[in-house]
């Protein structure tokens, strides 16, 4: 086939077979159909190509795969030129000055302002049109699932679709349903904790300067802002300067699968993880927004019949010595221990041969182990009276436990 010299044309020639078929087509008097005007009835008159190909798509078609909309110039610098009369694009996405203009009307159906669309070179709103022009949005096909974002510790694989087949236009309804489906993957534990993984990402920005004053670069050691930022804010690469009292975003977003602290109390067995800069909840089955939870026995979707409740009290212990009164086995769940006499005794917790709560002869302050980001973490809380005296010690371990934990008690005097 021969080139017509148009955009993206290449040097092609007709093959003998194609040439013969075309000659046969014309000689058989079948070519009269190409003289027909386009049909304007049915749904074709409502087909607006800008609802399928947005401004960025039109930029890529005109100037190449890296081109995108130059929104600043389009909306502000060429106010004398109607928005729908010129295509203004960045050629290099890393260079805001690389702008080119194409003096052709944007495709009908291109969004030109909030709740306004291009139509015959004009930017119009729904109240300027009849209801027959309304186009309701429809989903594109799902993309392929992305590679897992982490090699261990629970990364995320996801696929997406867009409401662009067509986009809603001229007052039409948006698409219904989710635009992303995601699952946790590579959930085998890493050597390091989830907090370590966030800390690693924060520390990678230590060499990047922070300009607190114009033209004056400052450098800090960056650590996770756990306890200071939560939810979506935490997933926006929020880090704290070590030894300082401020937190900033050190990038666009943490790696998908980085754990986060949900704004709301997550259900038992659910996992809060970052996805595209937002803190999302995955069910115990690892599926985004599935709502599936663990029962009291730690079984995902179970009915609580696979375990039994054990409850007891302990009043023993040795003065000035730690005595193990409870050994929690692997897979234990929903452990709740309360010490109601902390003026005379206090608890300690051992994991392996290491104390993680107390163990040095004095009562501990609040502890979350390994961290609030880690799955099945333990919480130790010391409750105080209005006079700031110890009122109650409380230990919460949702489980299922991944290792044996020993709970100890120490009496602070012989006569208690």
From TrEMBL:
Q: Record keywords: Zinc included?
A: yes
The question of whether Metal-binding is a record keyword is answered with yes
Disulfide bridge map: 59-89, 84-118, 112-123, 148-185, 152-190, 163-175
Where it sits in the cell: the answer is: Secreted
The residues that cross the membrane are none
Identify the residues that bind Ca(2+) 1.
33, 36
Q: What is this protein called?
A: Uncharacterized protein
Which species is this UniProt entry from?
A: Mastacembelus armatus (zig-zag eel)
């Amino acid at each position: 086939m021969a080139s017509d010299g148009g955009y993206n044309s290449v040097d092609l020639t007709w093959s003998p077979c194609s040439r013969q078929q075309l000659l046969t087509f014309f000689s058989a008097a079948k070519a009269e159909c190409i003289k027909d005007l386009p049909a304007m009835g049915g749904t074709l008159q409502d087909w607006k190509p800008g609802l399928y190909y947005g401004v960025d798509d039109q930029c890529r078609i005109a100037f190449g795969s890296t081109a995108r909309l130059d929104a600043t110039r389009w909306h502000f610098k060429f106010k004398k030129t109607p928005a729908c009369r010129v295509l203004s694009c960045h050629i290099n996405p890393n260079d805001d000055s690389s702008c080119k203009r194409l003096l052709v009307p944007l495709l009908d159906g291109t969004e030109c302002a909030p709740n306004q669309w291009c139509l015959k070179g004009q930017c119009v709103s729904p109240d300027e049109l009849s209801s027959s022009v309304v186009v309701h949005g429809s989903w594109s096909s799902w993309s392929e699932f992305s590679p897992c974002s982490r090699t261990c510790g629970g990364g995320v694989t996801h696929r997406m679709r867009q409401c662009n087949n067509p986009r809603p236009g001229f007052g039409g309804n948006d698409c219904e349903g989710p635009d992303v489906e995601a699952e946790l993957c590579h959930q085998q534990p890493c050597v390091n904790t989830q907090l370590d993984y966030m800390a690693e990402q924060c520390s990678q920005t230590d060499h990047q300067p922070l300009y607190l004053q114009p033209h004056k670069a400052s450098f800090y050691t960056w650590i996770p802002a756990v306890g200071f930022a939560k939810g979506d804010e935490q997933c926006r690469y929020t880090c704290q300067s070590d030894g300082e009292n401020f937190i900033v975003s050190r990038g666009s977003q943490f790696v998908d699968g980085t754990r986060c602290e949900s704004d709301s109390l997550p259900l038992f067995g659910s996992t809060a993880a970052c996805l595209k800069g937002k803190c999302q909840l995955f069910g115990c089955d690892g599926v985004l927004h599935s709502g599936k939870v663990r029962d009291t026995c730690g079984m995902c979707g179970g009915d609580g019949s696979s375990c039994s409740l054990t409850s007891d009290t302990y009043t023993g212990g040795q003065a000035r010595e730690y005595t193990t009164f409870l050994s929690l086995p692997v897979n234990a769940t929903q452990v709740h221990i309360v010490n109601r006499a902390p003026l005379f005794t206090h608890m300690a917790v051992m994991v392996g041969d290491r104390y993680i709560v107390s163990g040095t002869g004095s009562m501990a302050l609040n502890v979350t182990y390994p961290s609030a980001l880690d799955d099945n973490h333990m919480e130790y809380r010391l409750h105080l009276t209005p006079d700031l005296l110890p009122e109650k010690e409380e230990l919460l371990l949702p489980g299922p436990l991944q290792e044996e934990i020993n709970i100890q008690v120490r009496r602070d005097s012989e006569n208690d």
